[in-house]
UniProtKB/TrEMBL annotation, chain A:
PANTHER family: CYTOCHROME C OXIDASE (PTHR11403:SF10), CYTOCHROME C OXIDASE SUBUNIT III (PTHR11403). GO terms for molecular function: cytochrome-c oxidase activity. Belongs to the cytochrome c oxidase subunit 3 family. This is Cytochrome oxidase subunit III. It comes from Halomonas urumqiensis. One of its GO terms (cellular component) is plasma membrane. Signal peptide: none annotated.
From TrEMBL, chain B:
Residues 267-353, 363-450 form the Cytochrome c domain. Its EC number is 7.1.1.9. One of its GO terms (cellular component) is membrane. It catalyses: 4 Fe(II)-[cytochrome c] + O2 + 8 H(+)(in) = 4 Fe(III)-[cytochrome c] + 2 H2O + 4 H(+)(out). Residues 112-254 form the Cytochrome oxidase subunit II copper A binding domain. Belongs to the cytochrome c oxidase subunit 2 family. This is cytochrome-c oxidase. It comes from Halomonas urumqiensis. GO terms for biological process: ATP synthesis coupled electron transport. It is found in: Membrane. It is an enzyme of class 7 (translocase). Keywords: Copper, Electron transport, Heme, Iron, Membrane, Metal-binding, Translocase, Transmembrane, Transmembrane helix, Transport. It is a multi-pass membrane protein.
UniProtKB/TrEMBL annotation, chain C:
GO terms for molecular function: cytochrome-c oxidase activity; heme binding. Keywords: Electron transport, Heme, Iron, Membrane, Metal-binding, Respiratory chain, Transmembrane, Transmembrane helix, Transport. This is Cytochrome c oxidase subunit I. The keyword Zinc does not apply. The chain crosses the membrane at residues 45-67, 87-110, 122-145, 173-199, 211-241, 283-300, 312-333, 339-363, 375-396, 416-436, 448-467, 497-519. It comes from the Bacteria. One of its GO terms (biological process) is respiratory electron transport chain. It is found in: Membrane. SUPFAM superfamilies: Cytochrome c oxidase subunit I-like. It comes from Halomonas urumqiensis.
Length: 222, 465, 598
């Protein structure tokens, strides 16, 4: 549970510090004071979708840190832990995901410059690479199954399948959002909303890349 | 006003209930008076806070009920008051916690001179293992468990050879000697609890846990399971008798060691066949039973159950109740048999063929099927019995006999004896058969199981031909 | 009242308030079924939770019948008893309490109290309800599959929960785990909304420290739930894999039905850690909204400002944060490393301090108030009494030493029903009596309400208080029957019968409440916009019930905290939050510039 508790401690520390800065020395019963009103509203760049995404990412991080906590605890507990072999394909998949993330960042930059064609190309690249990543992950599953590393043979395998499938599901969820953004682009949607959508996708992909890096490192190390 | 009165009545009533209710901690029988002390400190501290807060609230309600002209006092904060309250509460909490932590300190540190007993739990009974002369428990694993090695002791571990095994759910402990109970489960999570000892702990499969205590009172206590472990959770009991050291030593010496059980001569069905001639007069040549003289079928019973019942007859744990007329008839026959003879006969009985019986009881098998759901958890969905649960075969047994025994169990004529641990369980379970109709129904359903089994046997023979 | 000029010089422009795109449906289905209006979604949540809660109530009566009058009802055998216990617990904790407090009151009150037109993401909010409904239906399906619902206890401890022989292992347990996963997904959608709306969509002048405590409670509970429910999700997924795919996360080397299984190496305690990492915050996920709501009920009906508002807010935050480091107090006798006992007993008792502070502040709010004994107020006082009682018995169980003999007995059953069932339910009832006029425009019948209160309050106390004492005697929980257990006195059976009768009466009284809800909807007295003379924004809406968009043409502007009751010198004994200082009428006719600054 150390991993989860560390994550929560950091998160809570930030949250509590923020709350503290907005409540310290505030005398709530004083009416109509204009300064208090100004200070406590959120800054303008924190839009609802951005904040929504952040809250979602905190929740998803909680899911993954808990699984990682369970992973480390289970590894310690049983004497039956046999790590999986590394697969070259995994490195290739990781590269795909990095490229997808880079492409989406490119799309975001292009969107800010209103370069619609470039946005379209980079979006397609980002989505395509991500889909390839998912296919690549399925291939690794097949490869492992062929080599006899079934889900139930060993807890290391079980955790591997659990982590990769949850990561993959989150990526698929991201692709649904991506598809909505892409459709909006094709229909010539409002540029501001489009920008916001692409930005959210880019941030979400960064997050999934980060999760993948941590998961991959964990699988390599143990 | 009504509310204030209600609060006062409830607060005072709660305290009076605490003082005068007939339900309190059971009389302590171990060294853990410190646990009781922590509980009473908690009662005093929380009781005072409870009274203070409730009565203050009642006072507020009485004094500050609504009046149109009055205004409430505008007081957003009162820093000194809040600081005082926080400080006092912190002190009170610390006063509660500190003694508790000290006691916990002794709870987790087992005295050097404690002797060890392993408690082995499984659905839904208890077994016990003592380390034997070498003072060390041998290694044991669930995957080594089979009919001949019910504790799963590793045969290659020399420490295990002299381990004393107690399969009967009855444990003796010497008085005034600290004991460390090491807990192991074969299947799911259980919890070994003897209320007067206070200490208890979960029994978790895949690991061992422990706690320690010193029994201070002699006498017989009841151990129960305190962690939900399946449908017979409520019937998972054992007896713990605390005795003087000499009686304990004598008892322990009587119990078999692992090596003794391993080296026991295998039972001989042929010798059993000869001995069985004494049983034929009543139970029939093939052990098929005779209703006319109230002798039940024996064919189909597993040797574990068969042996246990004969031992119960011998010791008087069965067949001594005045209402059990036919049981009383059985007793003299059982007492005439040696241990070896019983084992041989049991082995022979296992070889007897199970032939169809005649229905003598009329009941609604469909209603019976619903009732049988409970029976199935130990006796199996097909009523074939399950050795792990110490549950004998039901399908194919005489229905009149089943009804009589179920009634005996339900009414406590059979199974009440303290030595008959599994009978105790059956007494609890038989309570679900609330009337004679239920008895008939469930027996009728068991009858249909017998026919199914017989039919499938016939099919099997046909295919072989 | 609501349309006040927005003064650009004195208030920073809020981020997105007022620009929200609202879907304005025209058809009946669009308005009431596929509605994106938080108020409709709130009522959908409330009705669904009530319906499934009634199922759990019936189950509890079946449980009580068996305990009070053993084996008198042939319907209940040991398996179905455990199935009822399991479903009762799971439904009450997750599908009723969590859903109605966050999904119901959260949806109704957050936008109104913050001065927002709706939740931040109305479409997601709608999905949240329908996902919740789906999870309820999956759970209910467990009753109808062969083998029935799970009988593993609501804690679902493996190996028992997924071992052969346990009731419901053929299907019920799968449905329950899937239903929990779906519930968590649905809740996350709603939770995102609650958090973002509170942080983002507050109206002008509604600073954090001017939020009503109701919003604070629901907000903190949501933050906790978003971080704690993942633990349940992970535990449920891993348990499902153990059951369906044969993995060994939680399954050690063991026997099942006397046969050796293929499993090895898993740890049942790992599940318990995950489960209680969710399970303990869950207690506060239910409690914090109740804390918040009851603060507002007390202030409104005692006509007094809540005492120590800042302390109350910080107590909520501290309880929320600390509740993540106390989980293992549910596992003192679980066979985990006993040295954890020191740590978790300490953290657990520390959390009692902020909780006690809240109690003091509630009681001090009553002191020198001007208390109206309305039905919501009665329920609020009922909550205080019950919560104090239940909280104090928690000090026994949190203190590791005293927990050893008391865990897994009726002491625990009495404790958690008092603190986690009756106390929040009191608040929920109080809140319904309080806000029903806003939701429908009519008052609930007062006489029926008082009967409902007295029977529920006294009845539940009679049910749960004596349970502590039979627990003290050692009576174990989750027992189908007690047979001839020697250490249990015979009088326990008499008491159990009494408790069962009390339970039946209390349960029947809830039907009276339902009748009141239905009858008053058509025949209740018209309430007007602000029957309780309350200050918070939901009572200042131009329409009652509030229409889509809540506040008519212009959003209200907030000038003060929500507890201006009995302001010295003011003409009325309450000043709504959206009344600017210059508009306050004073008794001597003069305008004051400010007040109450210490």
């Amino acid at each position: 549970m150390t991993v989860t508790l560390t994550f929560l401690a950091l998160l809570m520390a930030g949250f509590v510090a923020w709350l503290f800065s907005h409540s310290v020395n505030v005398r709530p019963w004083v009416a109509g004071s204009s300064e208090t009103a100004r200070r406590t509203q959120v800054p303008e760049w924190v839009t609802a979708p951005r904040m929504g995404l952040m809250v979602l990412l905190a929740t998803v991080t909680s899911v993954f840190t808990l699984i990682i906590s369970a992973y480390l605890m289970r590894m310690e507990m049983g004497a039956d832990w046999h790590p999986l072999p590394d697969s070259a394909l995994l490195w290739f998949n990781s590269a795909l995901l990095v490229l997808a993330s880079v492409a989406l960042h490119g799309a975001w930059r292009a969107a800010r410059q209103d370069a619609v064609e470039r946005v379209r190309h980079l979006l397609i690249a980002g989505g395509g690479l991500s889909a390839l990543f998912v296919v690549g992950q399925l291939l690794v599953w097949r490869q492992l199954a062929v080599e006899g590393y079934y889900l139930a043979t060993n807890p290391a395998n079980a955790f591997y399948y659990l982590l990769t499938s949850l990561h993959g599901l989150h990526l698929l969820g991201g692709l649904v959002a991506w598809a909505k953004v892409f459709r909006r682009l094709q229909r010539g949607g409002e540029p501001a909303r489009l920008r916001s959508g692409i930005e959210l996708c880019a941030v979400y992909w960064d997050f999934l890349l980060l999760v993948w890096v941590v998961v991959f490192a964990l699988l390599l190390k143990t | 006003m009504a509310m204030a009165v209600a609060l006062i009545v409830l607060a005072v009533g709660s305290v009076l209930f605490f003082l005068f209710s007939p339900w309190h901690l059971t009389p302590l029988a171990s060294n853990w008076e410190a646990i009781d002390r922590t509980i009473s400190i908690s009662f005093w501290v929380t009781g005072l806070v409870f009274l203070a807060v409730t009565l203050f609230m009642a006072l507020a309600l009485v004094r500050f009920g609504y009046q149109k002209q009055r205004r409430s006092r505008y007081e957003p904060e009162n820093k000194p008051l809040e600081a005082w309250l926080t400080g006092l509460t912190t002190l009170g909490i610390a006063a509660l916690l500190a003694p508790g932590l000290f006691v916990w300190g002794s709870f987790v540190s087992v005295p050097e001179d404690a002797h060890e007993v392993e408690v082995v739990a499984q659905q839904w009974h208890w077994g016990f293992r003592f380390p034997g002369e070498d003072g060390t428990l041998g290694a044991a694993r669930s995957s080594l468990i089979d009919a001949g090695n019910p504790f799963g002791i590793d045969p290659d571990d020399p420490h295990g050879q002299d381990d004393v095994l107690v399969e009967n759910p009855r444990l003796l402990l010497p008085v005034d000697r600290p004991v460390k109970l090491i807990l192991r489960s074969k299947d799911v999570i259980h919890n070994f609890k003897v209320a007067p000892f206070r200490a208890k702990m979960d029994v978790v499969p895949g690991q061992t846990s422990y706690f320690w205590l010193t029994p201070t009172q002699t006498g017989e206590f009841e151990a129960v399971c305190a962690e939900l472990c399946g449908i017979a959770h409520f019937a998972m009991r054992a007896k713990v008798a605390v005795v003087e050291q000499p009686s304990f030593d004598a008892w322990l010496a009587e119990q078999p060691t692992y090596a003794e059980l391993e080296s026991l001569e295998p039972a001989d069905p042929d010798a059993g066949a000869e001995r069985f001639s004494a049983c034929v007069a009543c139970h029939g040549p093939q052990g098929e039973g005779q209703q006319a003289i109230n002798a039940p079928r024996l064919a189909g019973l597993d040797r574990d159950y068969f042996t246990r019942q004969l031992h119960l007859f011998q010791s008087g744990a069965r067949g001594t109740h005045e209402a059990d007329r036919f049981g009383q008839q059985m007793r003299p026959f059982a007492t005439s048999l040696s241990d070896q003879a019983i084992r041989d006969i049991a082995a022979y009985v296992e070889t007897l063929p199970v032939t169809p019986t005649r229905d003598t009881i009329i009941g609604d098998a469909e209603r019976g099927a619903r009732l049988y759901r409970t029976c199935a958890s130990c006796h199996g969905a097909q009523g074939a019995g399950m050795a792990a649960f110490k549950a004998p075969r039901l399908a194919g047994m005489n229905d009149w006999y089943l009804v009589r025994q179920l009634r005996h169990f339900r009414d406590g004529i059979r199974g009440r004896h303290p030595q008959d641990g599994y009978g105790n369980q059956m007494v609890d379970m038989a309570q679900i058969l609330i009337d004679d109709r239920a008895l008939a129904d469930v027996t009728a359903y068991i009858g249909t199981l017998a026919q199914q089994t017989a039919a499938s046997n016939v099919d099997a023979t046909r295919t072989e031909e | 009242m609501a349309e006040r000029e927005y003064d650009a010089s004195s208030h920073a422009p809020p981020a997105e308030v007022g620009e929200m795109e609202l879907v304005h449906p025209r058809t009946f289905i669009g308005k009431y079924i596929w509605s994106q209006d938080a108020k409709v979604i709130a009522i959908q949540y409330g009705l669904t939770a009530t319906a499934i809660g009634l199922v759990a109530l019936v189950l509890s009566i079946l449980i009580r019948l068996q305990l009070g009058f053993p084996n008198s009802v042939s319907l209940i055998d040991p398996a179905s008893y455990l199935q009822h216990v399991t479903m009762h617990g799971m439904i009450m904790v997750v599908y009723l309490l969590t859903a109605i407090l966050l999904g119901g009151f959260g949806n109704y009150l957050i936008p109104l109290m913050c001065g927002a037109r709706d939740m931040a993401f109305p479409y997601l909010n709608m999905l949240s309800f329908w996902t919740y409904l789906l999870s309820v239906l999956i759970l209910v399906a467990g009753f109808f599959v062969p083998g029935g619902s799970s009988g593993a206890g609501w804690t679902l401890y493996p190996p028992q929960s997924i071992s052969p022989g346990t009731p419901g292992v053929d299907g019920g347990i799968v449905l329950m785990l899937v239903s929990l996963a779906v519930f968590i997904i649905g809740f996350t959608m709603g939770g995102l909304n609650y958090v973002v709306t509170v942080l983002q969509a507050r109206t002008r002048g509604m600073t954090l420290m001017r939020l009503p405590l109701t919003v604070w409670g629901i907000f903190m509970a949501t933050v906790m739930a978003l971080l704690a429910f993942p633990a349940l999700l992970v535990a449920a997924l891993m348990l499902l894999m153990d059951l369906l795919l044969g993995t060994s996360f939680f399954m050690p080397e063991m026997l099942a039905m006397g046969e050796i299984t293929e499993r090895e190496g898993g740890s049942p305690l790992l599940f318990q850690h995950l489960f209680w990492f969710f399970g303990h915050p869950e207690v506060y996920i239910v409690a914090l909204p109740a804390f918040g709501i009851v603060s507002d009920l007390l202030a409104v009906h005692a006509r007094k400002n809540i005492f120590g508002y800042r302390m109350m807010v910080w107590a909520l935050i501290i309880i929320g944060v600390l509740s993540f480091v106390v989980w293992a107090h549910h596992m003192f006798v679980s066979g985990m490393n006993p040295y954890f006992g020191f740590l978790f007993a300490t953290t657990t008792l520390i959390i009692a301090v902020p909780t006690a502070i809240k109690v003091y502040n509630w009681v001090l709010t009553l002191w020198r108030g001007n208390i109206r004994f309305t039905v919501p107020m009665l329920f609020a006082i009922g909550f205080l009494f019950t919560f104090v009682n239940g909280g104090l018995s928690g000090l026994f169980l949190g203190n590791v030493t005293a927990d050893v003999p008391l865990s897994d007995t009726y002491f625990v059953v009495g404790h958690f029903h008092m603190v986690m069932a009756v106390a929040p339910i009191m608040v929920i009832f109080g809140a319904i009596y309080h806000w029903y006029p806003k939701m429908t425009g009519r008052m609930l019948n007062d006489t029926l309400g008082k009967i409902h209160f007295w029977v529920t309050f006294l009845g539940t106390y009679l049910i749960y208080y004596p349970m502590h004492f039979i627990g003290l005697e050692g009576v174990p929980r989750r027992y189908y029957a007690y047979g001839e257990t020697t250490f249990i006195s015979d009088s326990v059976q008499t008491l159990n019968a009494g408790i069962t009768i009390a339970a039946i009466i209390v349960a029947a009284t809830q039907l009276l409440f339902l009748f009141n809800l239905a009858w008053s909807y058509f025949r209740g007295r018209e309430s007007g916009p602000n029957p309780w003379q309350a200050t918070t924004l939901e009572w200042q809406t131009p329409h009652t019930p509030p229409r889509h968009g809540n506040f008519g043409d212009a959003l209200p502007v907030v000038y003060r905290w929500p507890y201006d009751y009995g302001v010295p010198g003011a003409k009325d004994d309450f000043i709504p939050q959206n009344v600017p200082p210059e508009a306050v009428e004073y008794l001597d006719g003069a305008h004051a510039t400010g007040k109450g600054a210490t």
